[in-house]
Amino acid sequence: MGLLVLLLGAAVFLNYVDRGAIGIAAPLMKTELRLSATQFGLIVSAFFWVYAPVQLFVGWLVDRFSVYRLMAGGLVLWALSTLAMGLAGGFASLLVLRILLGVGETIAFPGGSKIITRHVPPERRGMANAALALGIALGPAAGTLVGGMILASFGWRAIFLAFGVVTLVWLLPWHRTTRGLDVVDEKVEPNVPIRFLIGRWSLWSMSIAHIASNYVFYFILAWLPLYLTQSRGLSIPEMTLLATLGYAAQAVAALTFGGISDWWTRNGRSEASVRRGMMMLGQLVAAGAVLGLAYASTKVEIAVLLCVAGMATGALSLNTYAVAQMFSGPRAAGTWVGFQNAVGNLSGIFGPVATGAIVDSAGYGTAFVVTAAVAAAGALWWVIGVPRIQQIPV
């Protein structure tokens, strides 16, 4: 099932290319459409208004219907929404299209986790989730690099048009690879009621941990291009290079940590202890890197700190879903990850708006300090809040 996992990673890659396109387009789009920082924050946030709550329904769906067809349908919706943003005329149309993008992209992680728990054994779970984490990292990296070049040469609208068309190409290999899997997997796993999962503290504790890790990542994804160009005075090519460097470090870290965690597990170490430790350390390192970025004075310092933040985010994105899969098992993976993502992405709803308001009133420095504090609180939560990591009895 290597090709299946590879295609899941590619779907997540395209997911983050498309959702992050607005951050790359922001330096020109914000000016042309006369958007305030608060309006821009609302547009970024609109994605999560539906992305978070619809996760609950989508997670329920993938545990009961064809996860392979649901993956394809969600991708079509988000690709067309991305493409249409290139035709947007102002605040209202961008807001609506970001909402539709959020609906389409809800399928990626509940669907991906369902497929991984169904087809991948525990000793290979690290690398399988590393494929998803690689997509989380390389999506913004490629989106920043390619999008930055498109922005400089063709303007902001061309970014959305190009990304939307490219995303649709994924459907061809997906259809060929998953043909017949519905028949093989039909009714293998009895359903787990969502009311049973909601009564488990492990689900709530993981959802809270997810909020902390997402807050840092979405802060960097949405606000870094504006910060580097507006506050630091970097040109668009310079911004593109530095941001891409950070995402590249995140990709390398995800693959490295995925391989290490699998190696440790195969050699008898506790998978639960390894992943908890990576999450605690990742949150602390992310906090330090973000705080450092608020006071970095040179391009070299910014580059180094972005790489450190990227490495931390690679560990977080890998293990957040791997631990969720350990708790849920294959029968409940879709519903579990759907719920966890719904709560975890509340930081995507409130974070961009809060950051926009902070930037408008107190400047970028305060926004960086607040983000670092959230990351540090996440490290503490893995010590006091997340219970023993083991599959819940179902």
Automatic annotation (TrEMBL):
Quote the Pfam families the UniProt record gives.
MFS_1
Q: Which UniProt keywords apply?
A: Membrane, Transmembrane, Transmembrane helix
Regions that span the bilayer: 35-58, 70-89, 95-116, 128-148, 154-172, 203-224, 244-265, 277-296, 302-324, 336-358, 364-384
Q: Which residues form the Major facilitator superfamily (MFS) profile domain?
A: 4-390
InterPro entries reported for this sequence: MFS, MFS_dom, MFS_Na/Anion_cotransporter, MFS_trans_sf, Tet-R_TetA/multi-R_MdtG-like
What membrane topology does the UniProt entry give? Multi-pass membrane protein
Source species, domain of life? Bacteria
UniProt subcellular location: Membrane
Q: Main location per UniProt?
A: membrane
Q: What is this protein called?
A: MFS transporter
